[in-house]
Amino acid sequence: MNLPARRPSLPALHEASRPRDVWAWAMYDFANSGYTTVVITALFNAYFVAVVAGGAPWATLAWTLTLSVSFFAVLVTAPVIGAYADRHAAKKKLLVITTAGCVLFTALLYFGRPETLWLTVVFIALSNFFFSTGENLISAFLPELARSRGMGRVSGWGWGLGYVGGLFTLGACLAYITWAEGAGLGAQHYVPACMLITAAIFALASLPTLLWLPERALPQEGNLRDAYREVARTLRESASFPDFRRFLIAYLCFQAGVHTVIVLAAVYATQEMGFTTRETLLLIVVVNITAAAGALFFGHFQDRVGEVRALAFTLAGWIISLLLAWAATGPGMFWAAASLLGLCMGSSQAGSRALAGVLTPPSRRAEFFGFWGLTMKLSAMLGPPLYGVMVWATSSNHRVALLANSVFFVLGLMLLAGVRAGRGRRAAMRAERMDQRLKVSSI
């Protein structure tokens, strides 16, 4: 009797994971990256400061505080949403809701005008809330797909495809801007239109994820109150996860610096280096290309040399790139600094998500990634507003604010030195075995 040949599995993946599952998962990074690239990093942030807020002295601070309010809302809700998703096997359902919310409020940014300043602030905050919550949920699928020693590669595939998605959306917007400028139309016409383009691409590109990514977790009995109890239990037991806890503190520090660069890169380029809108968009294109290369390469590098050592290497690169950008007086050095920054951005984001997956108990994936997301949002509340305050306090001296931002990476590197991935993985698996015994005893 001839048995059917067994499908060969990729070494990075679990036996039950199919390449199509990984592609469907990674396509969400492709889909949502257009939002961060166009709205947060390259286009709408500078438009908000210069046009919606009229270039007022408080404009940069208003932008950063708006995002901070949004991140605070995510900070409060993320662990409970994660615990609820774990208990009810609802990651996929919640992802549909957050995707729809981000697409809707991104499209409504079309109405961003000086006369609708406060309404625009609300739309920014809501779109970012739904984006950030969805980012936590999609990350929680990673340990379902990848083995512990393959998370760096799989996370890198997702981030790499994500940067390609950001480039695709940015390219579509840049093509429209080129046409609009040729037709004599200004930023007040083409920037709002680019919000519709970004929303449409997000909606269409997320369909493979929402249709084909499987939800492998099984629902458990309980309600929303039980989700709160799960979060409380994890907080009480945090001493049992010392490496995960220390990693989150390190992540809080260096991710504050990352968020500051993401949120204010275009503002720095236009305000300090004198870049035009088109030059700024081309700069972001270069950063995204190098970031994609960094994410794809770094995943293999991380799996080879270890999660912590590889992440420390890329944080050192962050410090060097920021010092180069601070010292740059002409476009040449600034473009070089931006290229190195892109490599470090892609590698640090992919590496952080992979390390979080290694330190996570399998049955509490969404909950632990909720804490990871909570830390990410807390860092976003910390970094960009401090940059905005420094710009305001130093009479718009962006160079001083950029130099101060490098301190976040120094602190993160120092704290990361105490994290041991192997020890943290063993603690996660001990907690998993304890959870399984508790389930058996309660039957």
What is the mean pLDDT? 82
Q: Give a quick account of the main beta sheet: strands, pairing sense, barrel closure.
A: none
CATH homologous superfamily label:
MFS general substrate transporter like domains
Count, helices: 17
According to CATH, the fold-level topology is Growth Hormone, Chain: A
Quaternary state of the chains = single chain
Roughly how many Å is the radius of gyration? 21 Å
CATH class wording: Mainly Alpha
> Would you count the extended β strands for me?
0
Number of separate structural domains: 1
Q: CA-to-CA gap between the ends? A: 42 Å
Written description of the protein model:
The chain has 443 residues and is mainly α. It has one domain: MFS general substrate transporter like domains (Growth Hormone, Chain: A). Helix 1 crosses helix 7 and helix 7 packs antiparallel against helix 14. The N terminus is likely disordered. It is globular, with a radius of gyration of 21 Å.
Keywords:
443 residues; mainly alpha; Growth Hormone, Chain: A; 17 helices; 80% helix; 0% strand; globular
Topology (SSEs and partners):
Elements: H1 19-42, H2 44-52, H3 59-88, H4 91-108, H5 117-139, H6 142-145, H7 151-182, H8 187-205, H9 207-212, H10 224-236, H11 242-271, H12 277-305, H13 307-327, H14 331-358, H15 365-393, H16 398-416, H17 421-442
Helix pairs in contact: 1-7, 1-8, 1-11, 2-3, 3-5, 3-10, 3-15, 4-5, 4-8, 5-15, 7-8, 7-12, 7-14, 11-15, 11-16, 12-13, 12-14, 13-14, 13-16, 15-16
